[in-house]
Design a protein that fits this description.
By secondary structure, the protein is mainly alpha-helical. It is built from 32 helices and no strands.
Length: 539
């Protein structure tokens, strides 16, 4: 191209091609010089104006890029490509109203241009004009039924409108056209996640990750889906993968801390929340999460202070108000705790756990009638939520906890069973086993306990529950084995007491005493059991 220009300095095509060569090499300043040379020779050279505008946009020089499109449009007001590219540039500048006008001009010039209709839909979506966006995507699809981007974007717009099955259908259309379209797999996972079809969300996220292992948000969202399934330990490696992609991804650091908190490892979680806050000191969710962890460690004043800072940044986060109420309650400040719960319920009148907690506080304040109203409100909220999300294991679990507190055992048993059958964590199975045992159904209690120890073999609570059920059935050999396993993997004091009782019952009282001596800091229950065994030995 350079030789061609040397032979004929007025050869605008050579200058234009030289600009393209520089642009492909990433030498954008040199490309602009070449395009300007072409335009000096031929001021109305459309290809040079197009590509100059693209390079200017890539360099962040929006104003001269827009000026280049204006030159093209003055020469030809029906230039669809110029209107569309102008719309794209305005979108990148977050000037969505102006982008809408540019795309509308493009679609007026050519009603069959699918790209212009898709761009119009995207700008309308950004303006939260979702119904109009759907209409634009429909026009794009009518113009080109194989436009996977329009199908995908229409799907996500349906998701924002709460029309979830239609959204999923649109993603399927996009993926039928292009099975390797990562964004459609991601949006499919996100939609499943949003409607609590978490196993399906995991599958879709995994497919997206197969296509792009370098997307930290994908790794994080897959971890979140597992976390929401109660599979806290499994979620952590996925958050860590996100951090391998982007070590500055503060959300993933915080989420590891959240998972550790759920596993009861509150002290360990603090360093992850701290790392998140080191990256983003005003990260309200990390302040809340660290405060909640400190509260769980008994450091209530410190926790309350951080939760307060979180609420200063984001006063509309209902879970932070709930956490503040918990801290205040533990500090004995019941009226302030009640007021914090009022704020949570103003933000989310269907926050079931907040209604339950408010009822508990009002009971302790001596207001039984108002407490009863809170519990009834909570029950109604749970029922309404479960009508909308019948497969939500977490909802069934918390509904069961309330029913258990209200001594409605049969209903609680059904709710715990519904939660565990929908993939809730070990908590539902263990609560179900304990409740069945309490109402005298020992044989039934062994079933969820066995399920818990089978599905979660490193969780000592399943072994402990199985041991209690076996002991109640007189299967002392099994009970002894289960309790010893629970001791091996972490449930030491509680399991040692249960083991001592079993050993006493089979005539091994001395061995039971030896087990109790292994409890480093015996509590009142341990001391009473020790005294009972000694009496049985006549000592």
């Amino acid at each position: 191209y350079t030789r061609a220009m040397q032979r004929n300095s007025a050869y605008e095509i050579a200058a234009y091609n030289l600009g393209n060569a520089f642009a492909q090499l990433g030498q954008f300043d040199e490309a602009l010089v070449a395009y300007d040379r072409a335009l000096a020779i031929k001021p109305d050279y459309p290809d040079a104006l197009y590509d100059k505008a693209l390079v200017l946009a890539r360099l962040g020089r929006a104003k001269p890029a827009l000026q280049a499109y204006e030159i093209l449009l003055r020469a030809d007001a029906a230039n669809v490509v110029a209107w569309t590219r102008k719309g794209q540039l305005l979108e990148e500048l977050n000037k969505f109203e102006e982008a809408v006008e540019a795309y509308k001009a493009a679609t007026t010039a050519n009603p069959g241009d699918a790209d212009a209709w898709t761009g119009l839909g995207d700008s309308l979506y950004a303006l939260e004009r979702y119904e109009e966006a759907v209409e634009a995507y429909d026009r794009a699809i009518a113009a080109d039924p194989t436009n996977e981007e329009a199908w995908n974007n229409k799907g996500f717009t349906f998701f924002m409108l709460g029309i979830h099955e239609e959204a999923l259908s649109c993603y399927e259309k996009a993926l039928a056209i292009n099975p390797t379209y990562k964004q459609a797999w991601y949006n499919k996972g996100y939609t499943f996640h949003g409607i609590n079809r978490l196993e399906e969300a995991v599958t879709a996220y995994e497919k997206a990750i197969e296509l792009d292992r370098g997307d930290e948000v994908l790794w994080n969202n897959l971890g979140n889906a597992l976390y929401n399934l109660g599979r806290y330990g499994e979620s952590i490696p996925y958050f860590e993968q996100g951090l391998e992609v982007n070590p500055k991804y503060e959300i993933a650091w915080n989420n590891i801390g959240n998972a550790l908190n759920k596993m009861g490892r509150h002290a360990e979680s603090l360093k992850y929340h701290d790392k998140s806050l080191e990256i983003k000191p005003d990260f309200d969710y990390a302040l809340y999460a660290k405060g909640h962890a400190l509260d769980n460690l008994g450091r209530h004043e410190e926790g309350l202070e951080l939760i307060g800072q979180s609420l200063e940044l984001n006063p509309n986060y209902d879970h932070a108000w709930m956490a503040k109420a918990e801290s205040l309650y533990r500090l004995g400040r019941l009226e302030e705790a009640r007021d914090a719960l009022n704020n949570a319920l103003i933000l989310n009148g269907e926050y079931e756990e907040a209604w339950v907690f408010r009822g508990k506080i009002l009971e302790e304040m001596g207001n039984a009638l108002e407490a009863e109203r809170c519990y009834e409100e909570a029950l109604q909220c749970f029922r309404a939520s479960l009508e909308l999300e019948p497969e939500n294991a977490e909802l069934h679990y918390h509904y069961a906890l309330l029913l258990e507190d209200l001594e409605r055992a049969d209903e609680a048993i059904d709710a715990f069973a519904a939660s565990s059958s929908r993939g809730h964590s070990a908590d539902a199975l263990i609560h179900l086993s304990a409740l069945l045992l309490r109402v005298g159904r020992a044989a039934d209690a062994l079933v969820p306990a066995d399920d818990a120890r089978s599905r979660y073999p490193t969780d000592p609570r399943g072994w402990l529950a199985a041991g209690r059920a076996a002991a109640a059935l007189g299967r002392t050999g099994d009970a002894e084995r289960f309790f010893r396993k629970a001791i091996d993997i972490g449930a030491a004091p509680e399991a040692k007491r249960e083991l001592a009782r079993v050993l006493q019952s089979i005539g091994k009282a001395e061995e039971g005493l030896a087990v109790l001596r292994g409890i480093e800091t015996p509590d009142a229950e341990t001391l009473l059991l020790r005294a009972d065994i000694l009496r049985s030995l006549g000592r």
